């Protein structure tokens, strides 16, 4: 086994010798994540990697409302420019995170309004990745939008959590200013708070609302609904 940080070009190049297809999970959120990704992708190309399967983000774009979606768009450009074949798995926000959005008081707070999000389970993302990695040539230079089967408002998300878990969860719509103020106590750097708040504003904007059937197309089975996900997780 070889261990290498994305930011360590020499270690990454040594670790990737002999690898033909690389499954690249996006690095932890940092202010310089794109540069770490660039270093790792260039190391992969130098090591002779032929194709990369990268966990990107739904609606990734240079001007994405969700600020971290811009990181993913930049990384996709870096991978395309590398000369390697690629497959982009563009995951929407994870079902797995929704219960964590609620505070100790059972309230999900943020400026999402009545916007909708086609949440996806991590299990469906993993199943899609496995299918791609088993036959990377069949998915060369493809991009897949990975979503669940429906787009929900955060009020609906809260209602479904309440119904399955048996305790009340509710959504409170904040203004953008209120969202920044309610997160100020965490003492996080500005880029991180921007990411937190833009999670909600991206939902409000409609960027996260489209429903794709790419999970089923790639895996051969339908994506989990949010109720199914909640029922499978105790």
TrEMBL record:
SUPFAM superfamilies: NAD(P)-binding Rossmann-fold domains. Residues 6-172 form the NmrA-like domain. Pfam families: NmrA (PF05368). InterPro entries: Ergot_Alk_Oxidoreductase, NAD(P)-bd_dom_sf, NmrA-like. Gene3D superfamilies: NAD(P)-binding Rossmann-like Domain, UDP-galactose 4-epimerase, domain 1. PANTHER family: PRESTALK A DIFFERENTIATION PROTEIN A, PTHR43162. This is NAD(P)-dependent oxidoreductase. It comes from Microbacterium testaceum (Aureobacterium testaceum).
